[in-house]
Amino acid sequence: MEWELGGPDWTELTQECLLDIFSRLSLEERWTGPMFVCKTWMNGCQDPSLNSVFDLESKFQSLPGSVSCWSDKIDSVLRSVVDWSQGGLKEVRVRHCTDRAISHIAKRCPNLEVLSVKYCPKVTDDSMLKIALMCPKLKELDISFSYKISCVCVDMVGKSCKNIQTFKRNLMDPAEVTSSVPSNYLEDPSIFLIYGNIDAYVIGKHMDQLKHLELRFSTLSDKGLAQLCEGCPNLEYLDLLGCSKLTSDGVINSISNLKHLKEIKKPSFPAFII
Is 56 in contact with 27 (CB distance < 8 Å)? Predict the structure, then answer.
């Protein structure tokens, strides 16, 4: 009779039923709907089982123009998810966050396995060194286009995170460099060459377990690539698109010993299958 007169009372669903329903919704759907229905539903959305993954990458890809002005809001949402996960957050893919949020992740999420902080001009070595030291289970790291993360961080990640299998350190096409790049990169062009080879040396020395590596528009030289390939014999995928300091002979010689290599993207050449 109650069903016929007033309809079901959705607020009386069991916690198990709520979590089953909410687990079928995306992060955005939960944040813009169920969380604002009632306190019970909000508590359900905050359950640790629903907050093990924080992935906004597809959302950022669909947004036109710059959203860098959203840093405070992104930080706030990310910090909330970190707290709700109760240490169970394993995957984070975000842009335009700051050191504040990344430091919070390092402090509260020792089981983190995937971290992507592409296009994060306000993320620096300060927070990323904490990630390297406090998140040893990291398997995938993407710091592409985040120019304030230096080779010091790459070195510490290599030393501390021995499960890393995917590392992405893509740079912008020099023709498209914007104000997000620190001025010292532009005042002294030679620093590009230095940083590229240091990154290559560190990766080769400490990340022998790598399978997937992206270094688009890096300034590593043939010598740097040779050291990298010697130290990373398990590479299956290598992206060197836009690496203008490399030569064809240098690339061919360096990858000749990569027995597991399945695909490589060469500078100025389309991808080819080994």
Answer: yes
d(CA 43, CA 67): 29
β-partners of residue 265 are: 239
Question: Nearest 5 degrees, angle CA 89-CA 93-CA 97?
Answer: 100
Q: What's the pLDDT tens digit per position in 225-271?
A: 999 999 999 999 999 999 999 999 999 999 998 999 999 999 975 44
> Contact at 8 Å (CB) between 243 and 217?
yes
CA distance 228 to 43: 48
What is the rounded CA–CA span in Å between residue 88 and residue 50?
A: 10
Judged by DSSP in three states, 24 sits in: coil
Beta bridge partners of 272: 264
C-alpha span between 273 and 237 (Å, rounded): 10
Q: What is the pLDDT of residues 178-227, one digit of tens each?
A: 555 555 554 454 455 568 999 999 999 999 999 999 999 999 999 999 99
The number of residues in the chain equals 274
Q: What is d(CA 255, CA 106) in angstroms, rounded to the nearest whole number? A: 35
Q: What SS3 state is found at 171?
A: coil
Nearest to 169 by CA among 236, 224, 240, 104: 240
Among residues 223, 226, 48, 228, which one has the least CA distance to residue 151?
Answer: 228
What is the spatial distance between Cα 27 and Cα 45, in angstroms, rounded to a whole number?
9
**Angstrom distances, CA of residue 72 to CA of 54, 127, 222:** 16, 16, 41
For the record, the structure tokens of 63 come out as: 């947004």
Print burial letters for 111-127: b (CB count within 10 Å at least 16), e (below 16).
ebbbbbbbbbbbbbbeb
Contact 106, 131 (CB under 8 A): yes
- Residues 143 and 157: their CA atoms lie apart, in Å, by 12
